[in-house]
Write a structure and sequence with these properties.
mainly alpha
Length: 137
Amino acid sequence: MTPAQTLPTTGPTRTRPVRAIAVAVLGGAVVNAGIFLAFRAAGGTFENTRTPQPVSVPAVLLLTVVPMLIGLTATALVARRWPGLVTVGQVAGPALALLTIAVPAASGFDTLSLTALALMHVVVAVAVFLGLTALKR
């Protein structure tokens, strides 16, 4: 094989999944941090009755970025062999994000904080769906 016939190691086929994942994860993190700060300014305490420490911006970012990064990356890698997984992920990913609203709901947060945390879960659901949609293209 001559150098002109070799397959490129970078390009649209390799950068597109990385870009889709990065945009989804960073977008979700920025929006969730904004929600936290807005609801904190509005009087949300983000303290619950189950743990001695309140929720903070680093915790919001960690709990937004890590699950999304793991789920989207795993889906992108496995979808190379099984492309139908992206469609499954478009249903399962947002469903998991929405089902886990039950965790803060059961933790004894004040109403304003619970509303913010539930909204953050909805943001993750939307970001996962849009990120996987971008992977399909």
